[in-house]
Design brief:
alpha+beta; Nucleotidyltransferase, domain 5; 4-stranded antiparallel beta sheet; flat
Length: 491
């Protein structure tokens, strides 16, 4: 752009400078040069050297290795060690430019064009304790959402089977986001499918496939559904759901509603496109796949089940019932009629895992009942609880002649009366004396024997006021002067 022409058109150095993108002093210098008859100098900009050119390759390499996530703050010490001596601000510019270049050149994106009946993309979403399974039929964009109790394999396969039944057929490929319950190990970035998932896929006739790791672009169609279901279904309605069944009823209604509206991406109604896509979906098998929910076990009379040579407790009300036992990570899960009744940590063979709540509370120490067998024993225990306590304590103390002592004590009742003997038994139990002679001596002492009691409250009494003297009055010199004064008075 000619600076002189812009100045002559606008008539102001500053206006011409804003139009040309230069400083107003530059406009003035150029105009004055032209007025003096000098030709306008055209300067060709040359690449300028920067103080960070020596570490530019290092920065670009670290940005590439970290996927554009490394920050300038973390990269600066390495650049300093490589010889960079510039400012932190200049280095932040370098890192920002390297990230922009990496994002521009790292990958070329191309729109995904799935065909009818080809792909079903699945994933899980979680919000506020609710776990929901999401699936999108890629061509027709039919959305499917259901809530599950957990993200374990039985629940996932059951809801996937329900998805096939809702669609009315099976797609060729099920693309999942490396869901942990559906896969085994990952070898050389290749996902090994879980054997149960392979059998499930063989039964329904589809091919399992997996998204790339840390690559949201390969699963965006279902990620959008997860976010949409969270904001439009879960957040507004979760407070009104009292159970999983109520949540799934709401999910069915929500899916019917969104599938009947025009989809902004395909500019068509997903439910209407499903009618066309259903003709190329693979037919459903005649029988639904049998999904195992653990191993069947019968609860024994101890209210436990045996699994992997170890015992696990269940609620006592289930004695004699059939339960399903499964393992999830390092926990053992026990279900009864599709309801979780117990969860234990996985233990070694031969050990026992007991929960006190299954037996009505913590374990109490055993207390063996006293069962009299002779006439003397029955007569002695007829004296009441003090007699039973006396018998238990004497047996624990090792009183080997206890039967003879019991007979003598029973005979004392006829002479002294029941109340006196019971009181003597209580006193002998207090002092740990367990012979009939001790009981007889206590009776002979009568009520005059002292009864030890615990310490009581402090005794508070009103004492009379008495004259008092300061401690200084007892000093030796003071005592000497007092003695001299008294002598004078006496003389």
């Amino acid at each position: 752009m000619n600076i002189v022409d812009r100045y002559r058109e606008l008539g102001s150095y500053r206006a011409a400078a804003r139009a040309c993108g230069v400083d107003h002093k530059t406009v003035k210098a150029v105009v004055e040069r032209v007025e003096r008859g000098e030709t306008e100098v055209v300067r060709v900009s040359r690449p300028r050297a920067h103080n960070y050119d020596d570490v530019a390759e290092l920065v670009a390499e670290r940005v590439r290795k970290t996927g554009g996530r490394i920050t300038a703050k973390r990269l600066l010490p390495a650049a300093r060690a490589a010889g960079y001596a510039g400012s932190d601000r200049n280095f932040r510019r370098l890192v920002a430019d390297a990230k922009r270049t990496w994002r521009r050149d790292r990958r070329t994106f191309r729109p995904w064009r799935p065909g009818p009946g080809e792909f079903l993309v699945i994933d899980y979403g979680t919000w506020g304790g609710w776990k929901f399974f999401c699936a999108v039929l890629a061509w027709s964009r039919v959305r499917f959402v259901r809530f599950t109790r957990d993200e374990r394999q039985p629940a996932t396969l059951e809801v996937l089977a329900e998805c096939f039944e809702t669609l009315g057929g099976v797609p060729a490929v099920v693309l999942s986001d490396r869901i942990a319950c559906l896969r085994g190990p990952i070898v050389a970035d290749r996902v090994v499918a879980h054997p149960n998932y392979v059998r499930f896929a063989t039964h329904y006739g589809f091919r399992p496939d997996w998204c790339e790791a840390a690559d949201p672009e390969s699963k965006g169609v279902v990620e959008h559904l997860v976010g949409y279901a969270e904001t439009d279904l879960v957040v507004p309605g979760c407070d009104d759901w009292e159970s999983l069944t109520a949540a799934n009823v709401a999910a069915v209604g929500w899916c019917d509603e969104v599938n009947a509206r025009v989809h902004s991406e395909i500019a068509a109604v997903p439910a209407a496109r499903l009618a066309d896509e259903a003709r190329v979906l693979r037919p459903l098998p005649s029988l639904r796949a049998q999904i195992e929910r653990g191993q069947a076990r019968k609860v024994d009379r101890l209210s436990t089940v045996r699994f992997a040579s170890a015992r696990y407790s269940v609620p006592a009300r289930l004695v004699g019932e059939q339960v399903r036992v499964s393992v999830a990570g390092d926990h053992v899960l026990i279900d009864h009629d599709d309801v979780r009744v117990a969860e234990h940590p996985l233990i070694a063979p031969g050990e026992v895992s007991i929960l006190d709540d299954h037996y009505g509370g913590p374990r109490t120490p055993p207390r063996r009942a006293v069962r009299p067998r002779t006439k003397t024993e029955r007569e002695f225990l007829a004296l009441g609880p003090p007699a039973e306590a006396f018998l238990r304590a004497a047996a624990a103390a090792g009183q080997t002649r206890l039967p003879a002592h019991l007979a003598d004590i029973v005979a004392l009742e006829a002479a002294h009366g029941r109340d006196v003997v019971v009181s003597a038994l209580q006193r002998s139990l207090l002092f740990r004396r367990f012979t009939s002679g001790d009981v007889r001596a206590i009776i002979a002492a009568g009520p005059h024997a002292p009864t030890p009691v615990g310490p009581g409250a402090a005794l508070d009494t009103d004492l009379p006021a008495v004259p008092s003297r300061n401690l200084d009055a007892y000093a030796l010199d003071q005592l000497g002067s007092d003695t001299a004064g008294s002598d004078e008075v006496s003389s």
